[in-house]
Amino acid sequence: TQLLEQSPQFLSIQEGENLTVYCNSSSVFSSLQWYRQEPGEGPVLLVTVVTGGEVKKLKRLTFQFGDARKDSSLHITAAQPGDTGLYLCAGVDNAGNMLTFGGGTRLMVKP
Amino acid sequence: DAGVIQSPRHEVTEMGQEVTLRCKPISGHDYLFWYRQTMMRGLELLIYFNNNVPIDDSGMPEDRFSAKMPNASFSTLKIQPSEPRDSAVYFCASSIRAVRHYEQYFGPGTRLTVT
Fold first, then answer.
1. A33, B93: Cβ pair inside 8 Å?
2. Which residues of B lie closer than 8 Å to A, measured between beta carbons?
């Protein structure tokens, strides 16, 4: 089983601040996904990164896949209360095995 | 298009009772997953199916848990007998692997409380 570690586990910031959360592993992944989960709902896919070094942007969210495809980061610019939620990363290993989910980063953005 | 549908949304039962959770995946998706989420253990994969066939059930915690997928549009997760430690939110998700790197679409979950 591939292990994905996310950091920090908890993050509480003020509206307008920037933040970065990380997803790390010692294993190589063929692709990595980021999900956001709001209270009482299921996780919702935000993005999939496939190529080492790839950067994808989704409005104020910037996702990067590490060059070695072992890690990823999510940067949020000018966070808003609507960004509050649990952010989960999940990876597919090179053998095409099923997704492994990280433990998540719980983000709270205060107005 | 309808997303993944789960029922019931909430279930409260007494220890020892049988619990059946239901899931309807997105039409055309060939993978179906069952997860359990708790604060302590996060999101855990219990079992997944491909074309209605169970592929990996290594995440199923005990023989008390069983899952079936009799057709492409329906799956059940059964716990018998239920125990308080089974209390969690259970999610069903579906995916098309070949196209989308297992990108998963989750249902709203079933919150199970076993007293």
1. no
2. 4, 33, 42-43, 45, 48, 56, 91, 93, 97, 100-109
Per residue in A11-64, pLDDT tens? 999 999 999 999 999 888 888 999 999 999 999 999 999 999 999 999 999 999
A88, B93: Cβ pair inside 8 Å?
Answer: no
Q: Which residues of B touch A103 (CB under 8 A)?
A: 42
Residue B96: predicted pLDDT? 83
How distant is the Cα of A48 from the closest Cα of chain B, in angstroms? 8
A33 touches chain B (CB under 8 A): yes
Q: Can you give the three-state secondary structure of chain A, one letter per residue? A: CCCCEEECCEEEEECCCCEEEEEECCCCEEEEEEEEECCCCCCEEEEEECCCCCEEEECCEEEEECCCCCEEEEEECCCCHHHCEEEEEEEEECCCCCCEECCCEEEEEEC
Q: Is the pLDDT of residue B109 over 90?
A: yes
The yes-or-no verdict on residue A99 having pLDDT over 90 is no
Q: Which residues of B touch A50 (CB under 8 A)?
A: 101
Q: Which residue do the tokens 């095995």 mark?
A: A97
Asked whether the predicted pLDDT for residue B61 surpasses 90, the reply is no
Q: How many CB atoms lie within 10 A of CB A43?
A: 27
Indicate the pLDDT class of residue B102, thresholds 50, 70 and 90.
Answer: confident
